[in-house]
Amino acid sequence: MKPIKNFKVIIIIVLGICIHILLLLAAFDIYFNSSLENGMTPVKSTDDPPSKRVILIVADGLRAQAIFDENEKITPFLTSIRKTRGAWGVSHARLPTESRTNHVAILGGINEDPSAVFKKFQEFPVDYDSVLNESKNAWIIGTRDIIKLFQLKDQMKHLRTITLATGKNENADAWVFNEMTSLLNNSNHSQLLEDSGNIFSLHLGGLDKIGHSKKPYSKDFLEHIKFVDDNIRKMEILINKTFSDNLTTFIFTADHGMTDFGSHGSGSDHETYTPFITWGAGIKVNESRQDIYQTDISPLISSLIGINYPINSLGKLPIQYLNLSEENKLHLYLTNIHQLLGFSK
C-alpha cells in the first residue's frame, strides 16, 4: 500500500505546483501587459491658451526636502518665487524612482508601463506619447544618456535636441544654461521661438551626479543647488528680455529625489517627494503648498500652451494652479475628462 500512498502525495504536490504556476501566470497576464492604447483620437486642451511657451526645468535627483521649509534659504530666488509670484507644492513620484520612469510621468502623464520590466525599461522602452511630441516646437537640452530616455521620434522635425556626450563636461548643468543662452541669442531661430505651443525642456543632471558620489547633504551638493538657483534667475531675465509679451510659463521640478545614502529607486519620502514650483503666464499666485502627482504635470503643460493632451495621459489637470476665468477652467476640466475617458471633443 505504500507505493499507492506515495503516488497520491506526488499527485497532490504536482497539482499544487501547477495551480501556483497558473496563479502566477494570471497575475502577470493582468498586471504586466501593456495598458497603453494606440489609435486614439488626440484631445486638444484649448484654443485659447494663457501662455505661448513653457520653460520646463528638471533637476535630476533633487528631493523636495532639500529646498523647502528649513532649507529654503539655499534657494533665495526660487523661494522668492514661491512666496511672491508663483505657486508650489510637492510633486509625488511613483515607483520605481528612476530617470526613465519619472520622465515618462512628467512628459507623458502616465506611470511607466509594467510590461516594460521585461524590456529592461531603458534599453527597450515602451512607446508613449508626450507633451514634446504634441508641441508646436520643442528644444530639449541635456546629456545624451538622459535625452535618449525621452524616446523622441526622429521623424518629428519639430523636436530639436541639443545634447552633451556623457562624461565630457565636469559641469553639464553650466553647459545646459549656456546652450539655452545661445539658443535665445540666435536670430536664425527667432520666428520659431515666437510660435505658440513651444516647449523648452532643460535637464540638469549635476545634482544627481554629486548626490551619488558625495551624498545629498554634502557641501558640494548644497553649493550646486545655489548654482542652479542663481542660473535660473539669470535665465528668467534673459527669457523675459527675449520675449517681451509676458506669455512665458516656468516650471521647475525634479524627476526623483535621493536618500541620505545617495541612492534612489525605492519609495521613501526622500525619493518620491520632489519640488514643484511654477510661475508666469496662466499661473495663479498662491503662497500655500499645493501638492500634485507627477503625472499631473503633463496636462498642466498642455493646457497652458493649448496643445493636445498626450494620448495615454492619466494625469488630472491641477485646476488650482491656473489663473483663468471659471468658464475657461470648466472648459479645460471637461477636455481633460474627455481625454481621460478616451473620447474626442
Automatic annotation (TrEMBL):
Q: How does it sit in the membrane?
A: Multi-pass membrane protein
The EC number(s) this enzyme carries: 2.-.-.-
Q: Where does this protein chiefly localize?
A: endoplasmic reticulum
Biological process (GO), any one: GPI anchor biosynthetic process
Q: Which Gene3D superfamilies match?
A: Alkaline Phosphatase, subunit A
Record field: transmembrane: 9-32
Molecular functions (GO terms) = mannose-ethanolamine phosphotransferase activity
Query: So, what pathway does this thing act in?
Result: Glycolipid biosynthesis; glycosylphosphatidylinositol-anchor biosynthesis
Q: What does the UniProt entry say about where the protein is found?
A: Endoplasmic reticulum membrane
Which keywords describe this protein according to UniProt? Endoplasmic reticulum, GPI-anchor biosynthesis, Membrane, Transferase, Transmembrane, Transmembrane helix
What Pfam families does the record tag this protein with?
Answer: Phosphodiest (PF01663)
Top-level taxon of the source organism: Eukaryota
Could you name the Gene Ontology cellular component terms for this entry? endoplasmic reticulum membrane
Q: Which residues form a coiled coil?
A: none
What's this chain's function?
A: Ethanolamine phosphate transferase involved in glycosylphosphatidylinositol-anchor biosynthesis. Transfers ethanolamine phosphate to the first alpha-1,4-linked mannose of the glycosylphosphatidylinositol precursor of GPI-anchor.
Similarity remark: Belongs to the PIGG/PIGN/PIGO family. PIGN subfamily.
Q: Which PANTHER family match?
A: GPI ETHANOLAMINE PHOSPHATE TRANSFERASE 1, PHOSPHATIDYLINOSITOL GLYCAN, CLASS N
Q: What is this protein called?
A: GPI ethanolamine phosphate transferase 1
Name the lineage: Eukaryota, Metazoa, Ecdysozoa, Arthropoda, Hexapoda
